[in-house]
Amino acid sequence: MNTNELQGIKQRYNIVGNCDALNQVLDVALQVAPTDLSVLIFGESGVGKEIIPRVIHDNSPRRREKYFAINCGSIPEGTIDSELFGHVKGAYTGAIGDSPGYFGVANKGTLFLDEVGELPLATQARLLRVLETGEYIPVGATDVRKTDVRVVAATNVNVRQAISEGRFREDLYYRLNRIPLMMPPLRERGEDIILLFRLFAMEIAEKYKMERVQLTEEAKQMLMRYKWPGNVRQLKNITEQISILSKERVITPEVLAKFIPQDRESTQLTVLPHQGGDHSFENEREILYKILFELRGNVNDMRREMSLLKKKIEDVQSKPATIIGTTTPVQSIQAIPPINPQLEDAEAEEYIEPTNGQESLNLNELSRQMLEKALDRNNGNRKKAAQELGISDRTLYRRLKQYGMNEE
């Protein structure tokens, strides 16, 4: 598809953006439109997946027939079969007449099943049969009916994971996924973010007869670095908020920061693809090493306490207990003395279960590396290194001795 055709499609459907991933999706959609192949659109919530089925339908031989868009996640599980496949009078309470369902009324046309990953398993089985044979049975009916419907589906869930968890049928996935399309998230669309902001700002200014807001260069960079978990939908909402609530018409990073959520867990700033530079995993590796080091320390502490507890119980059981002047085996005593809370500081050596093979070598090497790094960062101060690693001074000394690192 040449540039003029692509721009014509974008203007017709009010699609804004020039990123390669978006252009690729539109190109494939137009190539598959003349066929009857089912299409499965992947993408996060808010990326605009609903535009692609309309493009496919309007450029297909079915364009003069009916087009229906159904959000499968918004229909209650108890009525979704009736909505899709219809029902006969008396099929359930409230069924006062026959209903053809979407597959009946959309015959010869196109059905867009949004959020198809939310369908119940029983409905998935019915949908699979329609896709394979064109046959379906309305709820409460006994006769088989035929339909000729082009199905385009979309989902924002990880279908592979849903299949492994038993929430989605694998055979239905392959039947829907004859032509896969991946809508890019907004954070990967680069300067498209600025174009969309400009469009939304212009629309709100025209609607409410106000001056359009504009971004400084620094604000544009901040906008492009934001992660956009809500994608285009979130960008539109924020643009509307800025247009209505901001007294300044030239938006600086300081003004923009007031409207962008600061939830660090889900909306951290992202690195722009074009900025280059290799990502360093040193920090992540340090964190992982520390977790493994602390985990091993906790396991060893638990083993040591269990060993001491077992020895204590054996010592108590080996001695007779005198109760009211009578020597009675200790087994008759119901309560076992509690563990000394100071066991952590006992002078016993650290208990390490003997292990063989690479696993033991790897864990020992990780522990040794963590000790060395902690000591280096604290200029050899053992007390500070122990505090950083979350262990006691005594435990640190034991491990230094174990790894032959106790020499000055």
Fill in the keyword field for this structure.
single chain; 408 residues; five-stranded parallel β-sheet; 9% strand
Task: Characterise this structure.
The chain is of the alpha/beta class. The chain has 16 helices and eleven strands. The chain has helices at 3-12, 20-32, 51-58, 80-85, 101-105, 121-133, 159-164, 170-176, 192-208, 217-225, 231-245, 253-257, 282-317, 358-377, 382-389, 393-402; strands at residues 39-42, 67-71, 110-114, 135-136, 145-146, 150-155, 179-182, 214-215, 250-251, 321-323, 326-328. It has a five-stranded parallel beta sheet, covered by helices on one side. Strands 4-5 form a two-stranded antiparallel ribbon. A hairpin with a 2-residue loop joins strand 10 (321-323) and strand 11. The model is unreliable at 265-282 and 321-357 (pLDDT under 50).
